[in-house]
Amino acid sequence: MEYYIFNTEEEVFSKNAEIYDMYTTQPRSERVTLYCYSVFGNGEYFAMEYDGSYDAKDLLNGLIPETEKEVINQGYNLEKPIDPSNDTVKHLKL
Amino acid sequence: MILGLGNTIPSDSVRQGLGGGVSYLLDNYGTNIGGAYSFRKLSSTYTGECIRVRRSSDNAEADIGFNGDYLDEAALLAHTGTGGSDDGFIIKWYDQSGAFVGTPSALNDGDLAQSSTTYQPRIVNNGVIVKGGDLVKAGDRSRNLLANPMAGGSGNGWITNWGNVQDLAIFCVAYPTDTNAYDAWFGCASYSATERGCVGITNSAAPRYLTLRTQDGTSYIKLTGTTPITYDTFALGTAVLKASPATTSLSLNGVPQGTLTNWTNSAFNNLRWPGGASGFSPDAAEFLIYQTPPNATDIAAIESDIINYYGIS
């Protein structure tokens, strides 16, 4: 498992949603399902857990993945995935 | 009266009321209902869909309704396919209560939903509907979870507006499958990520027991049952939380598991079903929440209806 770090909640869920968009033809406005990877926080940043089940292709290029041990050491709680906020969902569905 | 149907679909005669008409649970016990989710029709006045399902073949989503009083299984399989790799996942479980009066979140109103593929309960596995006996259930994977509201951190003006001092009652029909799973919720009401009205399973050596987490912001278990959890069969967890008088009770399959007399109500702003497990979460089939607990006679009658329908012994 790999973890990609993002600065904001909107960034992590937007990238997550971009990956999922490649695997469905329905527009986001008609979907309940918006993203495909779990997101965790450490109170400051956001980590997207990536296992390749939905291939990101080149969408994560330029980002360096971290290991589970590294993100745990950075304070991410991998027992408690976080949901997107209402505002983030509204943004994703625009 | 418990008929012990052995997880088979009841005939219409089982639903006959005393007057000869078809009887639905919420028609008889719908007062103060706050949310009602099932694969059977619970109200004669509900005309909406049952669930919304994402299929694995191309991730297309579609609503699935009822055929008569039960989930339309033919429509479900027509959507997902019946091939050896065709799966279906619940992304929304529609609320049959009609109680929602708030402002919808960006994803759901009174319904339970899940916007991440990772946690959507499975209802079709390899082209076959997930069942216990003849009755539909869902889950069949680790940490499956549906929530209301799905978009976190906002509340949606529904359960939040029940107020800070409300009592409530929860009826959760689950189907535990993994003897190693713990902290597995049958269903719960919570405040953000803190479970405060959570019916679950103990984190202990086997046998495991039903638990209830209450108002403290620390998720600590406040009641632990006395009847061991049984697996690969339907089970009913009932939690009644009352602040005045301060009496909280937990039961498993209608059998009392304990009471508390120090319950202090807190705010709730989230429903979750079932989720939270280490290991496979229990599968589940029905989830009812009442804003105000019914009286003891009606609680017993609701439990009897559920126990009868699911063939719980």
Overall mean confidence score, pLDDT of chain A: 95
Q: What's the N-to-C terminus distance of chain A?
A: 31 Å
Shape of chain B: globular
Which secondary-structure class do the elements of chain A indicate?
alpha+beta
Q: Topology as H/E string of chain A?
A: EHEEHH
Strand order of the largest sheet of chain B: 1-22-13-18-19-20
Describe the protein in words.
The complex is a heterodimer of chains A (94) and B (313). By secondary structure, chain A is of the alpha+beta class. Helices cover 28% and strands 14% of the residues of chain A. Chain A is built from three helices and three strands; from the N terminus they run βαββαα. The longest helix of chain A is centred in the first third of the chain and has 13 residues. Chain A is globular, with a radius of gyration of 13 Å. Chain B is mostly beta strands. The radius of gyration of chain B is 18 Å and the shape is globular. The chains are: A alpha+beta (94), B mainly beta (313). Chains A and B meet through helix 3 of A and loops of B.
Features:
heterodimer, A: about 90 residues, alpha+beta, globular, B: about 325 residues, mainly beta, 6-stranded antiparallel sheet, 3 helices, about 10% helix
Describe the protein's topology:
The complex is a heterodimer of chains A (94) and B (313).
Chain A: E1 2-6, H1 9-21, E2 39-41, E3 46-50, H2 68-73, H3 86-92
Antiparallel strand pairs in A: 1-3, 2-3
Chain B: H1 25-29, E1 33-38, E2 51-55, E3 61-64, E4 66-67, E5 70-71, H2 73-80, E6 88-93, E7 112-113, E8 122-125, E9 128-129, E10 131-132, E11 135-136, E12 145-148, E13 168-175, E14 187-191, E15 194-201, E16 209-213, E17 221-228, E18 235-243, E19 246-252, E20 255-260, E21 270-274, E22 283-290, H3 296-310
Antiparallel strand pairs in B: 1-22, 2-3, 2-6, 4-5, 6-7, 6-8, 8-9, 10-11, 12-21, 13-18, 13-22, 14-15, 14-21, 15-16, 16-17, 18-19, 19-20
